[in-house]
Amino acid sequence: MTSAVKTEHVDIRESVKKALPRSAAVTSVEFEGPEIAIYSKAPKILLDDGDKIKALARKMRKRLVVRSAPEVRVGHEEAEESIRKLVPADAEITSIDFDVSRGEVIIEAQKPGLVIGRSGSTLREITRRTFWRPSVMRTPPIESKLIKQIRYIVQSEAAYRNKIFRDIGRRIHRPPLLNNGWIRLTAFGGFKEVGRQSMFLQTSESNILIECGVNVGTPSKAFPRLDMPEFNLDELDAVIITHAHLDHCGMVPFLFKYGYRGPVYMTAPTLNLATLLQLDYLDVAEREGKLRPYRDRDVKEAILHTVTLNYGEVTDIAPDVRLTLHNAGHILGSAIVHLHIGDGQYNLAYTGDFKFGRTRLLEPATFTFPRLETLIVESTYGHPTDKMPPRQEVERKFASIIKRTVERGGKVLIPVLAVGRAQEIMLVLEDLVTKKRIPKIPVYIEGMIAQATAIHTTHPEALSKKIREMIFHQGINPFLNEIFVQVDSHEQREEIVEGEPCVIMATSGMLAGGPSVEYFRLLAPDENNTLCFVSYQSPQTLGSRIQKGWKEIPMRNRDGQQVMVPVNLEIATVEGFSGHSDRKQILNFVKRVNPAPERVLTCHGEATKCLNLASTIHKALNIDTKALSVTESIKLR
Q1: Are 1-72+151-173 and 76-139 equal in CATH topology?
Q2: Residue 166: which residues within 8 A CB-CB, separation 6 or more?
Q3: Is pLDDT at 327 greater than 90 in this prediction?
Q4: Which fold has domain 1-72+151-173?
C-alpha cells in the first residue's frame, strides 16, 4: 500500500472520530467493503442519535454503519434469551443466528413486523440489551436448504469474510491517483450474439467487469473473452452481476479459480439463485462427461466475496465509481446497473435482461435514473418481427390448451426454465384454477423448480405488488396452493404418466436434458396428451426439432437402449410469457428513459437484431447508437 493511500485512510478514520462524541467510546473505524464501520463500546449513544451519523455520512458521501465492539457484545445464549423475551410470542420466531463478522443477529420470524416493533422500537431495544445489530427476515413458507447452506458458509467463515471485506474496503476507499477522466468499454461476450454476456469497463482509476456468463449451448463460443490484452485479473476492482441466469453469471467462480479475490456485487435473490444454477451447471457437466470449468470450492469462494445490495442503494465500488442497482423486471432479483463515474462526470446504465411490462411475478423495469449519458440495452427480441401478443390473449390460449387436453383425458407437459418462467407459469395456473377457468387438477413440478420456488418465497419483498398484497395482507401465498405437487423420485414419474389428467412442469425448458425429456418419452406416443412450449427453443435442441414437426425421435429408454419414439401427442406453443421485452417494449423503454441518454449501445441479441434495433433508435430519437461486436472497444469519454 502506498503512503498516499495510507494517509487517505488515516484521514478518513480521523475525520469520523473527530465528528463523534468521546462518550461514544469509538474503538476503531474500519473499511468493510463499501461501508465504513464505526466500532463502539457505547453504541447506544450513536444509535440514539442516528441523525448525527446520517449527517456525517452525507457530509463525507460515504456509507457509515455503527457496530458494537466485539468485547461488549452479549454472549450468544444470553442474547438469544433476551431477544425471545423482548419479542412477542405472536411473532413466531423460527431461528436466531449470529454473524460475528458483521456484529449482526439474524432473526427469522413468521411475523417480522412484530419483531421490528412500532417505528423500529423493538429493534432498538434488542441492540441496547445485547449490543448485536438485528437483521429481521420473514420465515419462508418453503424451506430452502441451499439458502441455509449459504448462510452456514458465511457464518462459519466469519473471520475470513471479515478480512475479505476489510481488504475490499481499503481498495474502494483509496484516494484517486489520476483524474484525466477517460472511460473505455470493451465487449467480452454477448454482443451481436446471445450467451456469455460480459463487458469490461475501464477508467483512469479502476477496472470493472460487468457480467461473466457462459454459453452452454455453443461450445466454440462458451466463455467470455477474458484473454483480451487489456484484461488483467490482478488489477480487477469489481465484478457486477445483473441476474442469475448462467449466460450472465455462469463463469464468476472461474475468476476465483484463477486468483480473483475482489468483490462481486448483486442482489440477495441473485446470489441465492446464481449459486443454485452454478452448482447445477457443474453437476450436469459431470454427468455428461464435459469439462467442469471450475470446482465447487470456487463457488463457495464467490459466495464469500459477494456483496449483496438492495435496489436503490448507492454504493462506492471504486475510488471513482458508484453503483446503484434498479429493478429490471426480468427474473427475481434482476437488476439494471447504473454507474456514476467520477464526480458525476459520466453516468452509464446497462439494462441486463429486462421486462418493461407488468407480469404476474414482477413489477416492470425502472426507467428513471439520476443522470445518464450512455444506455446499454438488450436486443433479444429487437427485430421488427418480434411481437408478443397481449397477455390476456396469451393466457386465454394457454387455458384452452389445458382444458381441451383434460377433457380428452390427457396430460399436459410444460418444459420450463427453473428460474423465472416456472414461477410465472405457476402463478398463471393458480389463478386459472382459482377462477375456475380450467379444472382443478394436480400440477406436478420436478427438477430445480421446487428449489427455485423456495428461494422466491424467501424474497417476497422482490415480487410484484399484487403478490406482496396477497402474501402480506391476505395471508394467501399462491405458490403454496394445494394443486402443486412436488415430485421427489423417479418412481413417481410412471405413476403420474399412467394416472389421471394433470399438468407436468419439468426442466429443462428446451428438452435438452433433465426430467422433461423422460416425461416426453413416456407421453409422446399418446395422442390425448399435449406438449406445450412456453419458452424459446434454441436451434439444434430436441425441443426445436419437435416444434418443427418431427414425427419420430430417437431416444434411449430406461435400460439405455436406443428406440424410436413416435410423436403422436399434440404440440402447442404459447408465446408471451417471456421475461424479456419485445421490440415495441424496448423502444418504449428507450423513449421513456429519464433523463434521455446521449448514446445507446445494443447487446444480447443476434447480430441482425442488435444492428436493426440500433438503427431504429438512431432514426427515431436522433441520438448516437452503436452495435458493438465481441472484442470491440468504444471510448465513452
Answers
A1: yes
A2: 30, 31, 32
A3: yes
A4: GMP Synthetase; Chain A, domain 3 (3.30.300)
In the numeric block, the cell 389428467 is attached to: 501
- 1 burial type by CB count under 10 A (0-12 exposed, 13-18 middle, 19+ buried): exposed
76-139 — its CATH code? 3.30.300.20
Instruction: Please give the single-letter amino acid code of residue 491.
Output: E
Separation CA 399–CA 434 (nearest Å): 13
Residue owning grid cell 419458452: 535
3-state secondary structure of 521: helix
Longest CA span, the chain: 81
Amino acid present at 204: S
Give CA–CA dist 496/516, Å, rounded.
13
pLDDT digits (tens, 9 = 90+) for 60-107: 888 898 889 999 999 999 999 999 999 999 999 999 998 888 889 999
Matching residue, cell 390476456: 392
CATH top class, domain 391-573: alpha beta
Closest CA to 183 of 597, 613, 607, 633: 633
- pLDDT one-digit tens code per residue, 12-36: 888 888 888 888 888 989 999 999 9
Q: What nine digits make up the cell of 269?
A: 435473490
Kindly list the domain boundaries of the chain, sorted by start residue: 1-72+151-173, 76-139, 174-385+580-635, 391-573
**Cell numbers describing residue 602:** 445494443
- Cell numbers 396469451: residue: 394
What fold is seen in the domain 174-385+580-635? Metallo-beta-lactamase; Chain A (3.60.15)
- Distance between CA 337 and CA 325 in Å, rounded? 5
Q: What pTM, to 2 d.p., does this model score?
A: 0.93
The string of DSSP codes covering 230-273 is: T--GGG--EEE---SSHHHHTTHHHHHHTT--S-EEE-HHHHHH
Contact assessment for residue 510 and residue 520, using Cβ atoms and an 8 Å cutoff: no
Q: How far apart are CA 181 and CA 454, in angstroms?
A: 45
Q: What's the pLDDT band for 5 if we cut at 50, 70, 90?
A: low
User: What span, in angstroms and rounded, lies between the C-alpha atoms of 32 and 629?
Assistant: 37
